[in-house]
Design goal:
Layout: H1 9-22, E1 26-29, E2 33-37, E3 42-44, E4 46-49, E5 56-62, E6 86-88, E7 98-100, E8 109-117, E9 123-125, E10 130-135, E11 141-143, E12 147-149, E13 154-159, E14 168-174, E15 177-184, E16 188-191, E17 200-206, E18 216-228, E19 233-234, E20 239-246, E21 250-255, E22 258-262, E23 265-268, E24 277-285, E25 288-291, E26 295-297, E27 299-313, E28 319-328, E29 333-338, E30 346-347, E31 350-353, E32 357-365, E33 368-371, E34 375-377
């Protein structure tokens, strides 16, 4: 007696599904309707099934569901109008995808996939078919926000009533000048960190096409401050701050958080170090209010408020002097003078005076110099002789030895 072992249940289930699916002829299209632009390439997706006990003999596409005199549907690959433009991308198993290149309005039609098998009565045409519509490119248009703020990112999209099914080259224009060219299926132009120079009229086109879409204006709103003169500002100069805004607005000026003026232009004549700080303007219009980024006024000036301080003074030692100043940029060069002497006696911010006298310092930067008042320094001791080191006295105690008394000696008087 023979024993038959049944396959596992999941396998039985899969076999049943495959048998049921494969015993039915069927054609499925990726879409029932495709719209393509003139001169573009179209990929028409397609799959098919057939009984597993049959062998596929022929696969082809046709654009009619009416048989010819030979009781068969015309094969597009044999049609001179299509033979050079039609490429079969599929196989004889289940993929029936094709590519149709350089389409024109004459290609607008309904198309069907057809297959035959080695069994005479097992043939199939995929009805109701797929409709291809080819249009001119005059329906291209740019989609863009009406207004964007400087510093933001924005995407512009070149749209058509037809979805392109193949890679296409998009050409973008700003103010009728070619801007960029992209070779991918992304029909978007990304502007990152938009600048005011990006404002303008944008349009798009397809490479190889003469038609350019209607232009759409992209408006960039901004508020910014500029300084004139733009270089180094020295105390005493006249400075102008200009608040530029789009759209035009009512302008207020602030130093830090304090209101200092109004109007598009803020003038400072004979600027001083007190004007140093951060300035910004605020614009107010129908779209709301917006502050500009802050700009810093850094006022340069020559040394001033020069002073000398004594930080060390020991009796008989040298005296150390320190020169202090207020300047921008900070003073890096210092000279020391003794009153009634024309030549400098030292340099550097600190100075060791070895002699008594009146001394002053002079601080320098690239914008000028200034000297301090003289200070009187007294150095004790004569540093001009070999005896210039002062004496220091210490007490001295002499201890006499203790003499012991003589043992067994007596004192006698002279006779």
């Amino acid at each position: 007696m023979s024993v038959r072992i049944a396959p596992p249940l999941p396998l039985i289930f899969l076999l049943m599904i495959h048998k049921a699916y494969s015993e039915k002829e069927d054609v499925r299209y990726g879409s029932s309707h495709i719209c393509a632009l003139k001169n573009s390439s179209v990929i028409i997706g397609c799959t098919f099934t057939y009984p597993t006990d049959r062998r596929i003999e022929k696969v082809f596409w046709t654009k009619t569901d009416v048989k010819n005199a030979d009781d068969e549907y015309p094969d597009l690959s044999e049609d001179p109008e299509y033979s050079q433009r039609l490429q079969y991308l599929g196989d004889k198993e289940q993929n029936c995808t094709i590519r149709l290149s350089h389409v024109t309005q004459k290609d607008s039609h309904k198309y069907y996939f057809r297959f035959t098998t080695d069994k005479q009565n097992v043939k199939w045409i995929g009805k109701p078919g797929l409709t291809l519509t080819v249009t001119d490119d005059t329906d291209l248009q740019v989609e863009s926000p009406e207004r964007v703020t400087e510093g933001d990112s924005v995407r512009l999209t070149c749209k058509s009533s037809c979805t392109l099914t193949d890679r296409a080259t998009f050409i973008w224009y700003r103010n009728s000048q070619p801007l960029t060219e992209r070779r991918d299926t992304n029909n978007q132009l990304l502007l990152q960190s938009v600048r005011r120079e990006d404002a303008g009229r944008y349009s798009c086109a397809l490479h190889g096409h003469t038609y350019i879409s209607p232009a759409v204006y992209l408006d960039v709103t901004y508020v910014s401050v500029s300084i004139s003169p733009s270089g180094e500002i020295v105390e005493g100069d006249s400075v102008t701050l200009n608040c530029d805004s789009n759209p035009p607005a009512e302008i207020s000026w602030f130093k830090g958080g304090t209101f200092v003026g109004s109007g598009r232009i803020y003038n400072i004549s004979k600027i001083s170090s007190d004007h140093s700080g951060e300035y910004k303007c605020k614009s107010i219009n129908e779209h709301g209010e917006k502050y500009s980024d802050a700009v810093t006024l850094n006022i340069m000036y020559a040394p001033r408020n020069i002073s000398v301080s004594i930080i060390q003074m020991l009796e008989g030692d040298s005296v150390t002097l320190i020169c202090s100043s207020d300047s921008n940029p900070p003073a890096l060069n210092f000279s020391w003078f003794k009153e009634d002497e024309s030549s400098a006696v030292g340099s550097g911010q600190s100075f060791s005076a070895l002699q008594s006298g009146r001394f002053y310092c002079e601080a320098h930067n690239q914008h000028g110099s200034q000297r301090s008042d003289a200070v009187t320094v007294t150095v004790k001791g004569n540093h001009n002789s070999n005896w210039d080191i002062p004496f220091r006295y210490a007490s001295l105690t002499l201890r006499l030895p203790h003499w012991p008394k003589a043992v067994g000696l007596t004192s006698t008087s002279p006779q």
